């Protein structure tokens, strides 16, 4: 989520300004673009400016609801704590926990903020609350929840707690050559001051394993996303481009075909599936950028792929108890997940 290129190699302030300008041109992507801009500002050292961007997003929520307000609040809290606004950061983290978001990212960011400031008990409680909410009675933890389990494992090792069922699950999910117990060993730092070459070589191997896991996470492909037109958007699309009516006989058929395609892909072993919502204005802008007609159905999967690459896809299937991807407002298990 956050850029990690060292400041000496990138003009983070200039990149943040570019992203802000781009957000003005593409308001439908403003949330994702401004979050990236705020991350660049943090890396440049201008944390107050990053806070202003987070506040800008949160203040706009009344007119245009955010996709993930808890994520914005968690990032703001983490940023505030880094420049001595501890009380406000703690209050925001308490609010994030009380909101019980169904996305693992806010839980991980809030817990890691506590962990980085040696609030290990509170970090452990936060990781555990998130795991209990998102992973209870879940047969296979989604990829997005893995950092929740890994972070909880790490904090429990620092607290000297015995392994429990979720720690065992984290060990099972971890695929690197070095085990989680070894990676999260609190005594690792002692080896950095050792005069024994064997100790230093072992630590280099651990760091390589961590770097490999990080690179694997960064290189994970964006979701194989199915394009979902909300009812009003689909009506507008067909009225504007009647040639696409054959692609979408009815709204109900459109929803059913999305769910069926996702289930078929899942049964064939395709990982990292998602649903991405389309809008007519952004589709027309995409068609113009491709020099093609919006009436051409060949553009539809390309449009879906482009939106997914921007991070706009919603993971499928939704988390337990989360709303259905179709926008009905009903839980997925009571809607298309039946």
UniProtKB/TrEMBL annotation:
Entry-linked InterPro entries: SEC_C_motif, TPR-like_helical_dom_sf
Top-rank lineage group of the source organism: Bacteria
Pfam family for this entry, one: SEC-C
The protein, known as: SEC-C domain-containing protein
Organism: Streptomyces anthocyanicus
